[in-house]
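Dear all,

This email documents one entry for the complex benchmark we are building for the journal club exercise. For each entry we list the sequence lines for every component of the assembly. Then comes the predicted three-dimensional structure of the complex as a token string, followed by one or two observations. Please use this as the template for your own entries, and keep the labels exactly as they appear.
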Amino acid sequence: MKARGVLLALWAASAAVRAEGQSPDWFDAFRGRAFLQGDASYVAREKSAPPDASPLFRARWVVLRYAGFAEKERRWWPYRNLLLVAMPSGARYVLESSMGFVDESRLDEERPWERVASARAAFEVWTSGTARENPAEAGPCEGIRQRVAAPGGTLVFFLEELGSRTVRTSLEEINVATFDEAERRDLAVLLRAAVEANRSLSTEPPVFHLRDPVLAVNVAFRDQVPPPDKKTIVLSPDPVAQTDLSSWRALAHLPMDLPPFPALPPDGGLK
Amino acid sequence: MTALLSSFFLLLSLSGRSLSAEEPPKITLERVVDGRGNRVCDIASASVKTKEGRLSVRLVRGLVRSDLFLRHEIRRGAEGKEVTIDEIRMGDGPPMRFERGGPGGRVAASSPASTFRYFEQDLARRTVRCNLSRLAEETDPSLLSAVADYLEQGLEDDGLAPEEQPIFTLRAVEKRPPPLSQPVRKKEPLPHDLVEAGELKAAVLAALGAR
């Protein structure tokens, strides 16, 4: 009872901070007990490299689910789709595509979407708003929009304009001011990863794709994304896959305890 | 008139900036009236050539509750490149500022709180419109509605005066349907012997030199 009181006080304090206009904390959107729904390890090499060539990086793909709603809505619980990347130099990165708790009465509030984190800094993309039936009649900031929040700057933009010169140039400036040269070099390597569009955890909704966390780095480094024929890095199952996630706990904000996510009944059972 | 010009040059020299006029300012005072001759607003335009470039100000009085100031300045920036600075402000409030470094370069739009940089070719995009809308709101919540009023009253200069640039930039923010019929507006010289003409002239000269 006492613990619940403390939690409620923390929740109220968090809401008060947000009300004062400060940026919300990414991890505030993921509450409740966490479960591990998927875990796979990969090794990345050039397509043309021999199988025993040194890897360009190792990656671990994990999907976490958070008990944000009632058990009967377990299929739609908040999720974090994470790619944990370790470079040969020892540098580590967390790419993330996530959906946190959504209050349907407050859809204009920002929600976590994509994130790229190094040990030093994080480049976050938040999303807010709802789709407009007639965008031509919408106000200038209405509709689904994104906001970059990073130590190197902020930018509100519309995803369909990601390719525009204004958005690309601003993202590049934010990147340069957020990540150091070595980090940018590492993250640029990830842009060359060719990830099959259909590589997913399951075929039933919600479908978690490996390409989704990779999208985070493609948004952050939009101006450096190579054409498809230059994406020459392939991910293959890592024969020395690890099961322990503790070394990633701090950088990826992983909970201490991660029991397996109970299997879902076939689609149509739980709604 | 001589006394007024003397005070103007004194104001420039006291302004703390390297702005130094090379010639007396050119001033135009106009009254905008509707089809029945009723006053809609008064407009004062002033421009001056300086050692650094050219500076012009337009002051619209009576359109909205506060005076609307439009300011346009061309000067040499770092590395000798020509820089254009446009400002729009309401009364004594802070300006929203647009700085252009030349053709093809980015525009830096600033409110007192933040800056957003964009390419002119992207002005019609929602990303740019949304960010300009935010900057306008940060500068003065009534700024966009003053721009809309300016356009609805058909106050644009026939040849697009350079100081009207912020009006045409901010026009892109809110897409409004064109008015069903353009109001009848006529500009006529404002007689200099009217009390309000003297006040208007003093205000536009202050705006020209005090910033």
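Observations: Chain A has five helices and nine strands. Residues 16 and 66 of chain A are 24 Å apart (CA to CA).
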